[in-house]
From TrEMBL, chain A:
Domain SERTA, residue spans: 62-109
Protein name: SERTA domain-containing protein 2-like
Organism of provenance: Paramormyrops kingsleyae
PANTHER family reported for this sequence: CELL DIVISION CYCLE ASSOCIATED PROTEIN 4/SERTA DOMAIN-CONTAINING PROTEIN 2, SERTA DOMAIN-CONTAINING PROTEIN
Comp. bias regions, Polar residues: 7-18
Automatic annotation (TrEMBL), chain B:
Key words, A-Z: Repeat, WD repeat
Name of this protein: Serine/threonine-protein phosphatase 2A 55 kDa regulatory subunit B
SUPFAM superfamilies in the cross-refs: WD40 repeat-like
Signal peptide (from-to): none
Subunit text: PP2A consists of a common heterodimeric core enzyme, composed of a 36 kDa catalytic subunit (subunit C) and a 65 kDa constant regulatory subunit (PR65 or subunit A), that associates with a variety of regulatory subunits.
A GO cellular component annotation in the UniProt record: protein phosphatase type 2A complex
MF (Gene Ontology): protein phosphatase regulator activity
């Protein structure tokens, strides 16, 4: 997923210093990126240290601190899904932190919503500036938005205002905070949904047979329903989706439509549906 | 820190006894110790590692010739407990890492332990064989079948001594009951049942029955996207077989009574400390997540470990802990860095000593901390090869927070965060501790005069 240029994950690396201030350390598994940890030597003061208040007057202003944490949160959620062993515990903590920050941002206001349809403020400034990009007030990690998967499998018509709004995404500056938040929101859902360790037999017995075919029901060929369905990469009914589907980072929303966005994550069944319904 | 011997801090004298494991520049990940546990008598010490192996050490009999040397722990049995598995549907590997080992009380000559990875719990029997039968009629000494036509007489096989062989066999495999990662197992005081805990559910098993388990706690919401809290640890009460506790990622502990209902979703007691608003930060929730919960041996108290503190709770007081000990409060200002490098998610364990007067937990830089609940003194010690001369007394370490650093102190910025002590164990009755430092196991004893 594209991210704004802001925080580099290597910023706070405690073990390497390209400027050569540090003594050479033996490279071993513990100083690999997996650990990225201090090796007991001095290192440069990083932005993270500033947030921690390491030096008086070196502290970042609160909004920037918050932005830093937010970016780290999203980055970790992204990486969390790519790990071999996704940890539900860690993902829940990250999602809660993310939610907390977003609510705080929302409470503080920001630009008013651009209109009745809740769409990200694309008229906003280029999102790679270090300033806090405006967050649409109506954006939220509400269960509604996250609940795409859950509702879809039940076969009810689903109004997904957030999704619809964001689905009409222009190809211009999509990167950045709001985009990340969007992705983060959806990823949280597919994140939690993909945690189950199942073996074949229990998996199949859990699956209600009808659920698989519910999607093919013609009563669901409603555009709003479909876009919602299409947006869910891993539904809770357990439609088989390989790890590639659920763990692949969302492609950047530079593409024109939600269908494009989600096609890469659709499993075969959704693909068929999409063909049947048409773009 | 000798229980019962308070007063002078010079009384604190822990000595190096043994270290197990190799010194490597590149640590083999499979060798990283992931759990340590003494059995109920302290005769055996088990470790599990990331490679799915269990190594059991046995304490040798104390020798009258060398009274100053308490029994050493030597390798008794090594076996591969879990193998990596692959979930084909999810394309996910199931790690073979041993998350927990719990010993069963001993009934006969054999030893039994439960070991678990993310998905499967196994009951292992470790038994000795020092005799073998000889003189079969139908087989010869090499085991080849004899031609019955050549047998003219019958004899009774006799048992003859042989070299001691310790074998481990898997007696029960408790599988397919957990959708999420198992983080705890706990043997009930009835010695008939045990529970296994994953992120969202707790299951009760009978040790004899592997094809059935009872779900006693289920916190999975109907919509997974509403999930905000997971179970992080659980343990049975040491004496009351109907009581258990489980801790959560939000820093709360619930005590449940299995007599009240079949499904213990409603707790009997709820322990949670109100948040201190002055300490609030982005990371408040993450650092409040409880990584370990342990009943005291007496069953009167509960100990919990979160990222920065250890707390002792009185079971009769739910509103706040009885005692709070700061493990490494100097990290509070570094939380953002620790969040960035993922250290903030490290799960430290905590242990009681035999008399419940001292508690111990690990930290970074291979430091571990002990808190004496009576004298309120604490000490920081280090598990390192440099301090590994036999019976060398461990010198207390100190972390310097700011300002001038004294000679022997270490500054916060010089701490090695890759050297973390997550797993420790305390002998049930003596002052012997086992400390796991990455791939090495250190055994320390208090100084015997």
């Amino acid at each position: 997923m594209k991210r704004k240029r802001g925080i580099q994950t290597s910023m706070c690396r405690l073990n390497t210093d390209p400027s050569g201030k540090e003594v050479d350390q033996p490279r071993d598994v513990l100083s690999s990126p997996r650990y990225m940890l201090g090796r007991g030597v001095k290192r440069k003061l990083s932005d993270c240290e500033m947030v921690g208040g390491a030096g008086p007057g070196a502290e970042l202003p609160y909004p920037q601190q918050r932005q830093l944490v937010l970016d780290l949160c999203l980055d970790k959620l992204q990486r969390c899904r790519a790990r071999v062993e996704p940890s539900l515990h860690r993902s829940v903590l990250l999602a809660n932190t993310l939610r907390q920050i977003q609510e705080e941002m929302r409470r503080e206001g920001g630009t008013p919503p651009s209109g009745p349809t809740p769409s990200p403020a694309h008229t906003a400034t280029p999102l790679h500036t270090p300033d806090l990009p405006p967050i649409p007030k109506d954006y939220s990690l509400s269960p509604r938005e996250l609940g795409i998967a859950g509702d879809c499998s039940a076969g009810e018509p689903l109004a997904c205002p957030g999704c619809e709004g964001q689905s009409v995404v222009s190809s211009s500056s999509e990167e950045g905070c709001t985009e990340d938040l969007t992705v983060g929101a959806r990823s949280a859902d597919s994140l939690f949904g993909s945690f189950e360790i199942t073996n074949s037999t229990s998996y199949l017995t859990d699956l209600a047979f009808d659920d698989i075919f519910e999607d093919i029901d013609t009563s669901m060929y409603d555009s709003s329903d479909f876009s919602a369905l299409a947006l869910s990469p891993a539904r809770s009914s357990g439609a088989p989706s390989g790890v590639e589907d659920s763990l692949k980072p969302f492609p950047s929303c530079t593409t024109a439509s939600a269908l494009q966005l989600c096609l890469t994550d659709l499993n075969d069944l959704d693909h068929i549906m999409e063909i049947l319904v048409g773009s | 820190m000798i229980p019962g011997r308070g007063g002078d801090p010079d009384d604190t004298r822990w000595c190096f006894a043994q270290v197990k494991g190799v010194v490597e520049v590149n640590v083999t990940e499979a060798d990283i110790i992931s759990t340590v546990e003494f059995n109920s008598t302290g005769e055996l010490l088990a470790t599990g590692d990331k490679g799915g192996r269990v190594v059991v050490f046995q304490r040798e009999q104390e020798s009258k010739n060398q009274p100053h040397r308490r029994g050493e722990y030597n390798v008794y049995s090594t076996f591969q407990s879990h193998e990596p598995e692959f979930d084909y549907l999810k394309s996910l590997e199931i790690e073979e890492k041993i998350n927990k080992i719990r010993w069963l009380p001993q009934h006969n000559a054999a030893y039994f332990l439960l070991s678990t990875n993310d998905k499967t719990v196994k009951l292992w029997k470790i038994s000795e064989r020092d005799r073998r039968p000889e003189g079969y009629n139908l087989k010869d000494e090499e085991g080849r079948i004899r031609d019955p036509a050549t047998i003219t007489t019958l004899r009774v096989p006799v048992l003859r001594p042989m070299d001691l062989m310790v074998e481990a066999t898997a007696r029960r495999i408790f599988s397919n009951a957990h959708t999420y990662h198992i983080n705890s197992i706990s043997v009930n005081s009835d010695y008939e049942t045990f529970m296994s805990t994953d992120d969202l559910r707790i299951n009760l098993w009978n040790l004899e029955i592997t094809n059935k388990s009872f779900n006693i706690v289920d916190i999975k919401p109907a919509n997974m996207e509403e999930l905000t809290e997971v179970i992080t640890a659980a343990e049975f009460h040491p004496n009351q077989c109907n009581t258990f506790v489980y801790s959560s990622s939000k820093g709360s502990i619930r005590l449940c009574d299995m007599r009240a209902a079949a499904l213990c979703d409603n707790h009997s007691k709820f322990f949670e400390e109100p948040e201190d608003p002055s300490n609030r930060s982005f990371f408040s929730e993450i650092i409040s997540s409880i990584s370990d919960v342990k009943f005291s041996h007496s069953g009167r108290y509960l100990m919990t470990r979160d990222y920065l503190t250890v707390k002792v709770w009185d079971l009769n007081m739910e509103s706040k802990p009885l005692e709070t000990y700061q493990v490494h409060d100097y990290l509070r200002s570094k939380l953002c860095s620790l969040y960035e490098n993922d250290c903030i998610f490290d799960k430290f364990e905590c242990v009681w000593n035999g008399s419940d007067s001292v508690i111990m937990t690990g930290s970074y830089n291979n430091f571990f901390r002990m808190f004496d609940r009576n004298t309120k003194r604490d000490v920081t010690l280090e598990a390192s090869r440099e301090n590994s001369k036999p019976r060398a007394i461990l010198k207390p370490r100190k972390v310097c927070v700011g300002g001038k650093r004294r000679k022997d102190e270490i500054s916060v910025d010089s701490l090695d965060f890759s050297k973390k002590i997550l797993h420790t164990a305390w002998h049930p009755s003596e002052n012997i501790i086992a400390v796991a430092a990455t791939n090495n196991l250190y055994i320390f004893q208090d100084k015997v005069n």
